From TrEMBL:
Belongs to the UPF0045 family. Gene3D superfamilies: 3.30.70.930. Residues 4-96 form the Thiamine-binding protein domain. This is MTH1187 family thiamine-binding protein. It holds the Pfam family Thiamine_BP. One of its GO terms (cellular component) is cytosol. SUPFAM superfamilies: MTH1187/YkoF-like.
Amino acid sequence: MAIVEVTVIPVGTGTTSLSSYVADMQRILDKTGSAIHYQLTPMSTIIEGDLSVLLDVVRQLHESPFSGGAQRVCTSIKIDDRRDLPSSMEQKMRSVAAKLQR
């Protein structure tokens, strides 16, 4: 299972508020059902699942602000694709907590 951190920044929107764009992108994530697991953070969204599904979801997220009137969109992604052992957002957090003895 891959983990992707994605940040989508609409440019040319006429406002500094981006929450309506974030809400639109969250609706896209909600529609994926159980194909992915995601977590919204204040600065990005983290999604996990099959890499091919995640890349399709990232494409949809990137396209979304154009539908909302953005004239330009800058998208950054980071991919953690570990194949030697099972990996997930939850597992990564448990690993750090164990090292902190929490």
